[in-house]
Amino acid sequence: MELSGAKVDALVGEKKLDEAVGVLTRLAEENPAQKAPWVRLARIHFDAENYGGAIVAADEALQRDSTDRTAKGLRAVSGLRVATESLAELRDDVNLKGSARADAVSLAKVLRETLGEEVLVPPMSEEARREQEALEAKEARAKARRKVRRAPVVSSPAPRQASVPVVNGDPFSVLK
C-alpha cells in the first residue's frame, strides 16, 4: 500500500489526476476495509473542485470509520460548496419568486454565519482559471478526435463471374 501511496503522490504532483484516481480506486477494491484510499480520493476530488466525487468518496471512508474527521470535513465542505453554487444559480434566476427564494436566501445567510465567511465560494485564481480552460480545451479536442475517427469502410470484393464452358460460342450448350 505504501508503494501505491508514493505512486499516487507522484501522479498528483504531475497533475495526472485521472491516473491517481484509478490507482486509488484499484487500491480501494483490493483493500475493501481500508478507509485511507477513500479519504485520499475525497481529497483529490475536492482539490479538483469535483465536490460530488468528494462527497461520495468521503461517504465511503465514513462507512469504514465513522469517526474520521478528515472525511467528515471534506464531506461537509463539499456539500456546502455544492449548496452555495446552487444558491448562486437560484439567486440569478429572476423567475424564482416566493418561498423558494426566501428559503434560499435564508440558507445562504445561515451558511455564511456558520462559516464566518462573507463569500462562501471564493472566485477562482487566475492560474486555476487558466488550468480549467486548458483542461476544457483538451477535452474538446479529444471529443473532436473521437468524432473524426471512424471504423474503416471495408468493401466487399466484386462478385466473380462463374466460369461457364462455352462450346462453339453457345453458352447454353452445357444444358443440352
UniProtKB/TrEMBL annotation:
InterPro entries according to UniProt = TPR-like_helical_dom_sf
- Per UniProt, the ranges with Basic and acidic residues bias are 126-142
Domain of life where this protein originates: Bacteria
Annotated segments matching region Disordered: 125-176
Name the UniProt record assigns to this protein: Tetratricopeptide repeat protein
- UniProt organism field: Denitromonas iodatirespirans
Q: What is the lineage of its organism?
A: Bacteria, Pseudomonadati, Pseudomonadota, Betaproteobacteria, Rhodocyclales
